[in-house]
Amino acid sequence: MSATTSHPGQIGPRKDLAVARALGRSRRRKDLLIRAFCVAATLLGLFFLASILLTLLLRGLGGLSLQTLVNVTRPPGSGGGLLNPIVGSLIQVILATMVGTPIGMLVGTYLAEYARGSKLGGAVRFVSDVLLSAPSILIGLFVYQLLVLPFGGFSGWAGVAALAIIIIPVVVRTTEDMLSLLPDTLREAVIGLGSPKWKMVVLVGWRAAASGIITGVLLGVARIAGETAPLLFTSLGNLNWSVSLNQPMSSLPITIYAYAGSPYEDWVTLAWAGALIITLGVLGLNLVARTVLRAKR
Known about the structure:
Helix content is 74%, strand content 0%. It has helices spanning 13-60, 66-70, 83-114, 119-133, 136-148, 156-180, 184-192, 197-208, 210-225, 229-232, 252-260, 265-296.
């Protein structure tokens, strides 16, 4: 009997082939439709990103000069710059990163390596997720009640504390996710050689997940570098030159917030220059980190 002959009551090969072709055409149409939506969404996102960057460059480059970088803030029309906001932001962001990164890494390591499936781990993870999605102004109000009111005034330390609280859950989430992606066979191999678990975590786990953890830290830095609301309730800002953390401290986000809404054209220009400085700083930090990680690989 021929291979193409069908028995009574059975669907023949020709009909099977027609059905398969119809299904194939339907799947290709759906695939093309989904691809078109994905490409359109990507182009839309790139359009808005390019628009923001282009606007920053066009408006910010006009106010970016050596005078802007070496002069402190001054009254309108006095040729002021952004030196004290830049230095204040650098001090607060660096200290907040130094405080928040180790805490976030240790908490993320605990959740990934020691608290799998435990109730305490679930509670810690829940609190971290709440902090991650909490409005930054609430964190500013919390630090205001904790460090500003009891000590009788605004200070750079309060700003550092608020920014550190913001960066911690970002580092916790990325550290936990990166360590969770490591295969259990890697852990078993290291422990099977007689190494204690803490050495496995520090010397193998952290090293294998270094790129992801550093990316999380950079995301946290990018977030706190532009935070304004928590600093309004903590470090407040300072129009004069001051690097003392015991006094109100200037910062770029606060200065941009104050200058952008002013009626003075030179202050508005400085606000755009400050926004461009923050953007270029975060971009440069990401490029340097990726270059270093690529060289290590």
